[in-house]
Amino acid sequence: MTIRVASHAGSWYNDDGSILSEELEDWLANVNPRIDDLGVVPLHGARVIIAPHAGYAYSGPAAAWAYKSLDLSNAKRVFLLGPSHHKYLTGCALSKHTQYATPIGDLSLDLQTISQLRSSGQFEDMSASTDSAEHSLEMHLPYVRHMLSKDFDSASFPPLVPILVGSTNPTAEKTYGSLLASYLTDPSNVFVISSDFCHWGSRFNYTYYLPSSVSHPKYGRSLSKRDTPSDPKIYDSIARIDKATMQAIESGNHDAFLANLRDTGNTVCGRHPIGVVMAAIEKLKSEGNLAKEKGMFHFVRYERSSQVLEARESSVSYVSAFAIL
Predict the structure, then answer these.
(1) What is the pLDDT of residues 140-182, one digit of tens each?
(2) Cα 125 from Cα 184, distance rounded (Å)
(3) Using the 8-state DSSP alphabet, how is residue 178 labeled?
(4) Closest residue by Cα to residue 70 from 178, 190, 162, 175
(5) Mean pLDDT over residues 193-207, rounded?
(6) CA nearest to 302, candidates 174, 185, 198
(7) β-strands 46-51, 315-324: how paired?
(8) Which of helix, strand or coil describes residue 271?
(9) Whole-structure pTM over 0.90, yes or no?
(10) CA geometry: angle 198, 274, 78, nearest 5 deg
C-alpha cells in the first residue's frame, strides 16, 4: 500500500484538518442553494462538475458552487480528471498509489477500475514525483473528502479514480471520451473536471483583447504592456472571452469548444479534461445512450483573481459548472 501525501497542504491550502473543514463548510454555506430555472441544489443526476484548482485563497469560494451542485447520493466511485502541469503527455496517465491523503482524511483509489483502464493500453502510469507535483488533482481532494463525509461514513467512502490528462489532440480526446463513455452512463459514477479558466497577462503569454466594436471573439488583438484600453476595460474583455468559451461548452458540441479555443487562444488550463468529457457525452448521444437534453453544462459561478485595468497586470479566472446525466 502506498499513499500520496498532501504535498500542497500548508501552502496552497490549510494543513490543519479542523480549520480546513471549517473553511470548506463556510464557502459551501455562502452558495445560493437555488439555481435559476433549475431548482434547488444538489439537482438529481448532477454527476459531472467543472471546478477550479488554484490555491484556496483564490478559488476555494468559487469551487464551492460546483461542489454544492454535485449529486453524490448514489455515488460508488469518483473520477477526477485534471490537466498535467509538470509532465508532458500526449495522452492520459493513471496513479500507481493506493490512497491519496488529505488533512481531513485519506481517500482510497479504485484499484479495480484503474486496472480496467490500464488494460486498455491507452494510459501511461504517473511517476511518484509527477503525482506529487501535480496540483490540479490534489486541490480537489479536500472538497471531495468533505462532500463525501456528508453522505457516507468513512468505512464506505466511494473510491477515487484520478486521471491526469495531457496535451491531447482532438482525435485523442475523442478516443479517451469513447473509453470513458461507458463509465459516464453508470449512475453510480461521479466525474470531477479540474480547470481554471483564462490566465491573462504577459506572464502567461496571453494578452488577448476584444474591443467593443468587435462582433466575434476571433477578431481581437494582443495588447502590449503599455496599453490601457477603456472600451471596454480589460477585465470586461476577459469576461467576454471567458463567456464565449463557456457558451461553447454549454453548446455540448466538442468541435465548437475546440473552435472557440482556436479563435481566441483562451488559456483554459483544463481544456483537455473538459474536451475528453464533452467527447464522451457526445459519444453517448450519438449512440442513443443519453437523451439530447442531458449532459449539458450549466455555469453557476464566475470569479477572477483581480480586475485588470492595465496590460502589465494579470489575472486568473475561476468557474463552476455542472451537468445532469
Answers:
(1) 999 999 999 999 998 899 999 999 999 999 999 999 999 999 9
(2) 22
(3) H
(4) 190
(5) 97
(6) 198
(7) antiparallel
(8) helix
(9) yes
(10) 120
